[in-house]
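Write out the bound-state structure for pyridoxal-5'-phosphate.
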Amino acid sequence: MDVYLDYNATAILRPEVITAMQNTFQLFGNSSSVHRAGRKAKSAIEEARERIASVVEVSPAEIIFTSGGTESNNLALSNREIPVFISATEHDSINAVREDSKIINVDVNGIINLEHLEELLSSADRLSMVSVMLANNETGVLQPIQQVVNIARRFGAIIHCDAVQGLGKIPFTFSELGVDMLSISAHKIGGPKGVGALIVKEGIDLPPLLLGGGQERNRRAGTENVTGICGFGVAASLVQSALKQASNLESMRNKIEFEVKEKIPEVTVYGHGVARLPNTSCIGLPDMSNESQIMALDLAGVYVSAGSACSSGKITPSHVLKAMGFNDNAASSAIRVSLGWQTTENDCNTFISVWTDMVKRIFNSNDLCRSVA
Ligand code: PLP
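---
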């Protein structure tokens, strides 16, 4: 049986979400139409908006539906009038948006250097923006968002947080984080792909990225994806039960780390000693290319990722590990194991035995993938 341990790439769809989405196919109306068919679609969207709003404790009006975490991040950073400071370990949907972004250094665990943030902000000559992620997608390492907020507020900066990997894995609300804008994505919490939200605090002025109709209170034009949004709403309503599962996921994750280290002492677990997501492990084994590891695991029906895979499937050295100070060899030989709502102890045991057997076989034969530059 296949073992899926790649929840940070995407979570397995929740059955409740599938049923809810199937039901929406009868909602054929355009939610902007004033007739009854349109109003029905609109009310399904508003119900989903309320569900999502209640999970992060915001007003429904503060939610802008988007096509996913990538669009939410692009939208948050789109105002080119405002200089932006981002951490060195952000997701590419933040890194790629602004060529003028200034980078905030991180330490060996990937945690933002607060003094450097302060230095950068004090050198800014006008209103600026800080964008720091809640949890890293490759290592699971958490950023001290409240401390970032305390510093950024002293300089009057706008604060955006990419919480795509945090939602459903660690508890938080919008006001606890204290930020002005927050990105979330449905498919990381058991909802459908291609739908997400940017939460924008009332009073924050954000020009739209997509122009056209007046949907989403003129902040994001385009006929809403009713099915996706409803699936997102149902996935959001399952977040509380997902959070109850977190300590179980953490014990399974810890068992994986303990056993692989016991069997292969050369293993490094990145971010091991600091606050991390409970479901994520970034396991490195120098000189053993992650591409070869992933292919060998795939042949055995075990699915994991290298955090740095791009859409073409090509794996490049992880910019996250490089920012943390590791060399190309280390940054090309880490895999990411991420657990989720359907993960069992058996899955974890299968991973441990398949992976350690593979490593021993490769070490013994010494004929594969020890040639990472
Ligand atoms: N931000 C982070 C931290 C992510 O891990 C991802 C997806 O992997 C995204 C943003 C992009 O989200 P989406 O796939 O919904 O576009």
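---
The radius of gyration is 21 Å.
The longest helix spans residues 36-56.
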